Amino acid sequence: MMSKFIKLFAVVLLLASCGKKDDKLSELVFVTSEGPVTYQVETAATKDEMSRGLMERKTLAENSGMIFVLQGQTEIAMWMKDTYIPLDMVFVNNDGKIVWLYENAEPMSTKLIRPQTNEPLSAVIEINGGDIAKNGLKIGDTVQHDALKK
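Below the sequence we write its predicted structure tokens.
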């Protein structure tokens, strides 16, 4: 009898862990002329999280990435130091509109990537290299994410 209980308890635990959502991930939607494209992203909001970013990662799952919450900064620079995977970067203004795109940033590069816009930025979103082209993201498209709500 006890053995059946233990097996049942193990199955319940297994099912609960399978359905558990990763609390570090949140949904981000790129609203394009072709329709919405949904990603699961980590949020980098603290100074430590932003300086670490996606460094030392060997892979990034499909349709996932990281959003860097900037809160209206105008002077920013990104780089790929200690980042092993090519990334695309999407720069978003305070209205949630894409104002600049940078494609296929070179892994491990210390070259500074500075957005070619003077608009205050609310976020930079890093996604797999090639995703901007694959999803048809364009300047003027919008982004929906909880961190971008005013």
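Strands lie at 25-32, 35-44, 64-73, 87-93, 98-105, 121-128, 142-144.
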